[in-house]
Amino acid sequence: MSVDTLDKMNVEDVKSSQQAIDLEDKYGAHNYHPLPAVLKKGEGVYVWDVEDKKYYDFLSAYSAVNQGHCHPRIVDAMHKQSQTISLTSRAFHNNVLGVYEKYATEYFKFDKLLPMNSGAEAVETAIKICRKWAYEEKGIPETEAKIIVFENNFHGRTTTIISFSNDEGARKNFGPYTPGFIKVPYNDAEALEKVLKENKNIAGALIEPIQGEAGVFTPDDDFIPKVKSLCKAHNVLFMADEIQTGIARTGALLAVCGKCDCQGHCERQATYSRPDVLILGKALSGGAYPVSAVLADDAVMKVIQPGQHGSTFGGNPVAAAVAMEALEVVKDEKLAQNARRLGDLFRSELNKFIENHNIVTLVRGRGLLNAIVINDSEDSSTAWDICVALKENGLLAKPTHGNIIRFAPPLVITEDQLMDCVHIITKTLEQFEK
Ligand SMILES: *Cc1c(COP(=O)(O)O)cnc(C)c1O
């Protein structure tokens, strides 16, 4: 059959969830193992499946839709810009990029922004900037630079990034691996200090302020400030991957703000561990479009000169317009403050449940990035089975590594909605009580 005679199936022809699942199964690579929920519509904290069943979304596309599904202001910005000009390539200028760069650098208080698309690309960009800075500014001999990373990290899926993962599934048979990384235990400042003292040629440390994929592993309050001060003492770039934790998710504008009371607009306060390199993605677009960025001051960003790094879509007018609106929404709707208040409420409600039940051992997290640890062996299917039951009861969540379930609703959730969700979650967990 030639393409000329190919008949396209219409999306309206998909009448059942099973039909959609079968299509993906037959024609798509099997690189994910989704819950059997086929979503066709989203609005705020809700999503609907093909059978019109309504759910609370408690994953928020891994914290990309902090602003809620299809936020009207973000959709509008995207619509308007995509009808005017969508892509110009960086071979020319466009009239939106500079306005976005001014806004975002003032918002996060860095001198410069380098726009990319996916999170992994932004991490790769940070690694390249860090290495180049090491050779040209710190004076490390060429090709000798090492970057410190942390055990159980998740920074994306590219060949270099999976080289320093310790997740077997992410790594195995994708070698040979990119050299130049030293892995240190997370939440262990002494181990970090030892590595910094014993190794020459360390260029930077790349860290998640809370390890989301690892199971919302939340370090001690003084760990990130210690990482920051150790990096400073050893003239090593402190690079924060805030792709999942950033943009109000943890109850502050950035997780490196710590538990300060800036209510989301932290400005070099005592608890703020300001990164030398800040990596953003996910909610930078509110889930409307792939937008990521690396921010740094001139002293670091100046090492990148024309022709040395780029991306066809990076900094395109639609991405720039969407990101600006997504950041405005976070500010205008006080999403950091909401995440902080409702996150405290969520954990206190679940702790009440945990006191009288044994199916969950603990709840942890900050703001509205939380997880519960299920009281069963790591390789049991209990967490998965609970997520299937939650789905039946109208709430979508997914297990992360082992028997941990992450709960991360859109930050536009209201207190009433959150209490409704607490009810769904605790009633469902009761079904699994031993
Ligand atoms: C999701 C994520 C990434 C990768 O982002 P992609 O857009 O999937 O490439 C990197 N780091 C962290 C902490 C993430 O959560």
TrEMBL record:
GO MF annotation: an example: identical protein binding
Swiss-Prot/TrEMBL GO biological process terms: L-arginine catabolic process to L-glutamate; L-arginine catabolic process to proline via ornithine; L-proline biosynthetic process
Names of required cofactors: pyridoxal 5'-phosphate
EC number: 2.6.1.13
Top EC class for this record: transferase
GO CC, alphabetical: cytoplasm
Pfam family, one: Aminotran_3
Membership in a protein family: Belongs to the class-III pyridoxal-phosphate-dependent aminotransferase family.
Name of the molecule in the record: ornithine aminotransferase
Lineage: Bacteria, Pseudomonadati, Bacteroidota, Flavobacteriia, Flavobacteriales
Gene name in the database record: rocD
